[in-house]
Structure formats: C-alpha cells, structure tokens
C-alpha cells in the first residue's frame, strides 16, 4: 500500500468534526487474476474488520467492473472469495507450467500485439480511442462475434443482475465515436450489459444500436471519477503501470495527482509477493485466480489495521 500524506491546509477537503467524510473505492482491471486478487483483498480486509464495500462510490473498470457489481450485490466478501477457491482447477498438464512467454489471447492476434501497434500509431488519448474503436469494429465486421455468449458469461459471474442502490460507475468507450462513456443505474442499460461493455477488449459489445469497448481505454484505473470524494482507495492489480506515453496522463500517478489537487486523500494498493507473479504472466488465464485470490486475502488481512484508520 502506498501511503500518501493528507493535503495541505489550503486543500478543498470538506471534512470537519461534524461532517462524515465521503469515501470512494476504485477497482481497476487486470483480467481473471485482477478480479480474483481484488476480491481476495476485499475479503481479507473484511476479515480484519475493515469493510471497504460500504464506499459511497464504487468505480469499476474492465475486470474491476465485475468486482464492483459483485461486492455491491449484497453477497459477503467471504462468499465471493470462497467461490474463487471452489472453482474447478485447470487441467493438471497446465499446473506449474510457466505462462511468462505467453500474452493474453482473445482470438486471432494477441491482445497485447494488437493494442501495442495501435498505441504506437496514436498521437494522443482521443486518437488512440478512435483507432482502437475503428480496428475493433473492422475486426468485428470481418469475423463476427458471439456477444450473446459473452453476455451469458458475464451474467453468470454476477450474484445480482440489478443495479445496486449504492452508487456504482462503470466506464466504457463508445466504439462508434471513440468517446468515453460512464454507465450508472440511470443510464438506461442493464448492469450485465454495462459490465460486459466495460470488459470487452477487442470486440465491440452491442447494447441496443450502440457498440462499446473496454473502460480501460478511457483511462487506466479511472480514479478521476472519484473526484470530489474525501478519501479514495484505489486497487490496481497492475501496480499503476501503463503502456501509454506518460505525457498522455492516462497513468495512475497522474490520476492520483489530480485527486490530490482537488483535495482528496488517496491510498493505492498494489499486489505484493504473496500473489505470485500472475500479473507478469497471463492475467487472463483462469489458473491465475486461486493464487491471486489467496495472495490478495493474506495481503488484505495484513493491511487491515493500517487501512482502518484511513477508511474510518
């Protein structure tokens, strides 16, 4: 956990002795491993007496959008954690086999190869999003996509398909325009569709006449959506790393700087060695989930005492 000092006295924080501070939880994406680590960490914190699921705002991006929907469903973090450990294990032939040489596969070219080439051609974030969307739409038109199946998969992962009463924001990108969008319970689309859109990496996800892509194309963690909240906890499975040019300010450090400038106190939490190197290998591989979840759970228990004072 990265501990950041409180803002200077001239900050715009609204907390006082008679005002309850507002709290936001930001959940970044990182495939199967990231989902499992975040759920394990949240369960570990809960076991240590710290419930961060009671945030006034939950922001979930890509795999983090799945976590956001899961933890606001009324299901206890311990149940969500136990469900990961109870998942059917990967075939024995794959257990213990290093995944380091591989990159996440969706279908056809690897996701990293596909997106790295587009990043290299782009001049700024808006140009990147336009190029990513154009490439995804072209890929979809050429090959077709079983998006009904993706909706079924996403739906099966969510304990509830209804938007929670708690405020949840799920970013995505409009594939037709390249413009960022942020879904919430007032957006007029189902929670399942919002999560499916935010988790679609290479293939546009259809919602009515619209087509949407991964929320991470808006900004990596999308922590800036917590602007105005007094205390912000950011869970970043990829430890704030970015493949984008730093000048674009899509990275977590820039988002945290913006939050500080607006008066927020921020804690960032990254995976430690207890989760293994699943985030340096293939984060989309389901076999990464148990070690990531166990590592997150142990880390959450260890962090509980420190985070309790911050969270309040």
TrEMBL record:
Keywords: Lipid metabolism. SUPFAM superfamilies: FabD/lysophospholipase-like. InterPro entries: Acyl_Trfase/lysoPLipase (IPR016035), PNPLA_dom (IPR002641). It comes from the Bacteria. The keyword Endoplasmic reticulum does not apply. This is Patatin. Residues 25-226 form the PNPLA domain.
């Amino acid at each position: 956990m990265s501990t950041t000092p409180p803002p200077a006295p001239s900050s715009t924080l609204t907390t006082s002795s008679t005002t309850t501070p507002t709290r936001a939880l930001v959940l970044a994406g990182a495939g199967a491993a990231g989902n499992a680590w975040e759920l394990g960490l949240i369960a570990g914190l809960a076991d240590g007496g710290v419930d961060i699921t009671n945030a006034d705002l939950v922001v979930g991006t890509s795999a983090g959008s799945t976590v956001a929907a899961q933890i606001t469903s009324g299901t206890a973090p311990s149940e969500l954690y136990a469900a990961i450990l109870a998942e059917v294990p990967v075939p024995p032939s794959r257990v213990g086999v290093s995944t380091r040489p591989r990159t996440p596969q969706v279908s056809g070219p690897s996701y990293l190869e596909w997106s790295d080439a587009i990043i290299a051609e782009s001049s700024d974030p808006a140009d990147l999003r336009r190029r990513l969307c154009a490439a995804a739409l072209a890929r979809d038109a050429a090959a077709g996509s079983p998006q009904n199946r993706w909706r079924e998969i996403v739906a099966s992962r969510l304990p509830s398909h209804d938007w929670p009463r708690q405020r949840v924001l799920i970013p995505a990108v409009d594939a037709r325009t390249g413009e960022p969008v942020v879904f919430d319970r007032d957006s007029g689309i189902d929670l399942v569709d919002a999560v499916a859109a935010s988790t679609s990496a290479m293939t546009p996800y259809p919602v009515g006449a619209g087509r949407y892509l991964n929320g991470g194309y808006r900004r990596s963690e999308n922590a800036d959506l917590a602007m105005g909240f007094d205390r912000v906890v950011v869970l970043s499975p990829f430890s704030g790393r970015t493949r984008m040019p730093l000048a674009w300010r899509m990275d977590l450090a820039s988002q945290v700087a913006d939050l500080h400038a607006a008066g927020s106190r921020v804690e960032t939490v990254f995976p430690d060695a207890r989760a293994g190197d699943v985030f340096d290998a293939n984060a989309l591989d389901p076999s990464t989930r148990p070690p990531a979840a166990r590592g997150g759970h142990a880390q959450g228990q260890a962090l509980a005492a420190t985070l309790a004072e911050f969270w309040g």
